[in-house]
Amino acid sequence: MNSVKQLIDEARASGLPSLEARLLLSHAGGLSRTRQLAWPDTVLSTEQAGQYRDLLRRRNEGEPVAYLVGSREFFSLEFIVSPAVLIPRPETELLVELALARLPLERACSALDLGTGSGIIPVSLRKHRPLLDMRAVDISEQALAVAMRNAERHATPILLGQSDWYSALTDERFDLIVSNPPYIAHADHHLAEGDLRFEPRNALTDEGDGLVHIRRIVGEAPAYLRPNGWLLFEHGYDQAAASRDLLNAAGFDQVQSWQDLAGIERVSGGHWPGPASGQSI
Question: Where, by residue number, does the polypeptide cross the bilayer (predicted)?
């Protein structure tokens, strides 16, 4: 027999937390967690139980739950994910909240997301700002395919394009630029631990000191921002001071870093006042 209770007990005996076990069972058997708890004697088919045990094995080998079930919740929305993109993380919700605070609700404006990955940032912004002209780019065709599926899933019109940061853009200007770039230093031991072992390396590290892409994003942003526009980007736990220095050196004002729920300075940004008198960009 392959009852819900027996299958969950198998997972717990292997050391897997109950929540993860129930997520995998929901994916394999089509049973919501509520139904699993209410009717633990429900019996799954041999095929469903086999799929569940395969997922259980892969999870115990370290494969992320989000990749196993193909989705992850972010900003109260369910997003498609695959090994071609990073797994959405709660810390990035701070970046979305800060961006929304700078985007008017009842007036048209424009925003650009650099390195969009699965598209969680532009989809979340467009979902809450229906008049927003949203543009998003990524260097990876596979990531853009996932972002397109998520935009379609949530009915959020977004202009997606392949670009190495700003390289494919022309004379476009935006009211807001946001980014969650690869910012882990190449020698950081975290790259060989946990979920990061399975995520696309080029979306995690710049193969340098962690600031390679941030330097470019900040340095070139003034050419693509309208006066009074904002640049906001996520970074590592120890990169806030360096990020503020880069913003100040590039001519931004109101430069600041914001803490995530863990008290870590996770996002930095600044206001672009426009070029100085006599200066062109």
Answer: none
